[in-house]
Each structure stands twice: as C-alpha cells, then as structure tokens.
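Reminder to self: tokens first, then the designed residues, so the page reads top to bottom the way the pipeline ran.
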C-alpha cells in the first residue's frame, strides 16, 4: 500500500475566490496547495474588462500570505455585448487567460451572462483565431428542461453546434457531472477538455437528501445519479489527458446556504487535493493523480508544468465543522490523506 506520494505541485483550473472579506478568508486555502488557479469572474459586477481583471488580480495577490508561490490566472465574464477588441487584446497582453461563458440565469451571478451563443459569434471566431480558451458552464437554462438533464441537453443544443462552427476553438466543459459529458469529451478531438470537482467524484444526488435536506452538498451543476458519479470517476482516473482538476470551490456564508433559498456552491478548497487523493486511492489509480492534478490542465492551456512538488501522506485530519463563516466540504470527516508541509 502506498503511504506517501510526491507529485508536481497541482493547479486548480476552476475556482471562485470571491472578493473583500471572503476573498481574504478563502484565497490562502487555494494558495497553500495550488501553484496557479483559473479564477472565475462571477463577481458583482462581473469581471468584463482588462482594468477590472487587473485590479481583481492585485486584490487576490494581496489576499494570499506574503511569499506564497501562487499565480491567479484571470478570466473574462462573457455578456451578450462582450467587447471582442478588449478581450483579444487582454489575452495578448496576458491579462485574460480565458473567457467564461455562463448561460444567463444558469447559476450564481450569471444574470449578466449570454442569453444566446449566436450573440457572441464574432467574439468566438476571434478567440478561435487567437487560441484563447472558452470555458463553459454547460447547462441549458430552459425551465422546461428537468434540472438533472440540463447538462446533457446543453451538449446537444449548444456545445455540439458550437464545436462544429468553431472547430479550432479550445473549449473546457467545466465541472462535468454526467456520463453523457464524460463520453462526449472523451469522444471529441483534442480541442475539448473538461474539469472535474471533488464533490462530483464523492457524492451522488442521494447526498442532497441524506436524512433531511443537505444544503452544503448543493452546487451547480447539481449532483447526479450514482451511475453518473461512477462515469465521472472513470473519466478522472482513467488516464485521458483531457480531464483535469478544477475544484469549483464556491464558498457562501453559512446563512446563505442554510436558508429558504440556499445558494449553490461547495467550499472544498481547504482539503481539495486530499479529497481527490482519496478518490484516486479508492480507484487504485494513485499513479494517475499527478497527471490529472498537475500535468493535463497545464498542457491543455499551453503552459509549463510546475517544477515544485507536494507530498501527500496517509493519515489525515478531521475536517472542521466550520472554517470562518463557511462550512467546508467533508466537514466532520477524517481525511485519508494529508499534505505534508
Ligand atoms: C458557483 C458560485 O457559487 O459562484 N456555484 C456552484 O454551485 N458551482 C457558480 C458555478 O460555478 O456554477
Ligand atoms: Zn464554478
């Protein structure tokens, strides 16, 4: 049995770091483990300009401990009237690593998102030419579609035509949750990849209702049936270079989760790598954790891998019931792995 594992330092290819006091509270957790992170732009107001992205990047750097080896990679929030010139320039100048497409109304702070992909065709063509990745929240918002089917229907209605119309556009389907998404990504060419969260590897939708309503297991896309969880596990641990780590760590204050209309999002940053390690261990795939966590994402984004390493050792801590104002993923559970410092 492997009790100690040293891998290249990982990156988080999808995280919500928020702003103000919450940013200060959560960013150190991400910076402790990850060398780089793709930072989601769904602030209020959303990050849509180079100036906003640069200012946010500075606030993030100021929020992590001095001397931390952590680089935030910024994204641009797409709206119906996204400014193609600004975005392509922002990419060329190294301000925007990628653009994030939220279908309007799909999730937290997506009200300004894109109402129809046809509205941003010019921008997508320019991103395709520039080699700028498009990150998609892959759910339709049609209220007639069952919430558990919204990812699969997005593949049919939105993603398939988009990939056909922009064959060289690099696309990341974020936080995949279904067998349909895992199969679709695996079956496509190397312009399409996917991130996978720890909660979608550990939990099926039963976790939402275990002995009562469980708001801290609620995130979007919502947890799915067990067969989908198993398919997503096979995708993560199967060795394909087009699946990689993206925590979707999305903190909300406890009162906003435990509410008559609770916010979507799981705060997994404090024990994220430990959580993924448990899954790879259970699947007998610890030898593939490094590729998933530290190699595949960088390769897709055309960035160098990290030279520093981290070491995981068996025998972890009990996750606290609360971290600041937030209930973390795995609260009250003992982790099988811990990060040696
Ligand atoms: C995210 C958030 O709270 O910003 N919530 C979530 O459940 N994942 C938004 C998102 O990524 O959908
Ligand atoms: Zn997210």
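Designed residues (341 positions):
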């Amino acid at each position: 049995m492997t009790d100690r594992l040293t891998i290249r330092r990982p990156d988080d290819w999808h995280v919500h770091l928020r702003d103000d006091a919450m940013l200060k509270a959560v960013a150190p957790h991400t910076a402790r483990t990850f060398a780089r992170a793709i930072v989601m732009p769904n602030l209020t107001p959303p990050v849509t300009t180079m100036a906003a992205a640069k200012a946010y990047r500075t606030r993030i750097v100021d929020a992590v401990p001095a001397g931390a080896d952590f680089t935030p990679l910024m994204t641009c929030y797409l709206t119906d009237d996204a400014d193609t010139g600004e975005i392509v320039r922002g990419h060329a100048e190294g301000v925007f690593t990628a653009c994030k497409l939220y279908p309007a109304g799909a999730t937290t702070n997506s009200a300004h998102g894109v109402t129809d992909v046809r509205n941003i065709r010019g921008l997508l063509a320019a991103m395709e030419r520039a080699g700028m990745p498009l990150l998609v929240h892959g759910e339709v918002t049609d209220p007639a579609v069952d919430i558990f089917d919204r990812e699969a229907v997005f593949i049919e209605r939105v993603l398939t035509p988009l990939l056909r119309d922009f064959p060289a556009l690099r696309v990341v389907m974020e936080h995949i949750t279904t067998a349909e998404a895992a199969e679709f990504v695996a079956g496509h060419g190397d312009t399409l990849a996917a991130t996978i969260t720890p909660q979608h590897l550990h939990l099926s939708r039963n976790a939402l209702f275990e002995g009562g309503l469980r708001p801290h297991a609620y995130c979007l896309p919502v947890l799915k049936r067990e067969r989908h969880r198993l398919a997503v596990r096979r995708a993560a641990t199967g060795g394909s270079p087009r699946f990689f780590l993206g925590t979707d760590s999305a903190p909300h204050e406890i009162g906003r989760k435990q509410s008559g209309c609770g916010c979507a999002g799981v705060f997994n940053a404090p024990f994220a790598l430990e959580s993924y390690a448990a899954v790879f261990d259970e699947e007998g795939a610890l030898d593939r954790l490094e590729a998933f966590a530290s190699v595949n994402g960088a390769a897709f984004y055309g960035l160098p891998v990290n030279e520093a390493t981290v070491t995981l050792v068996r025998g972890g801590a009990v996750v606290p019931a609360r971290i600041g104002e937030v209930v973390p993923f795995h609260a009250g559970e003992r982790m099988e792995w811990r990060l040696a410092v």
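The chain is about 35% helix and 15% strand.
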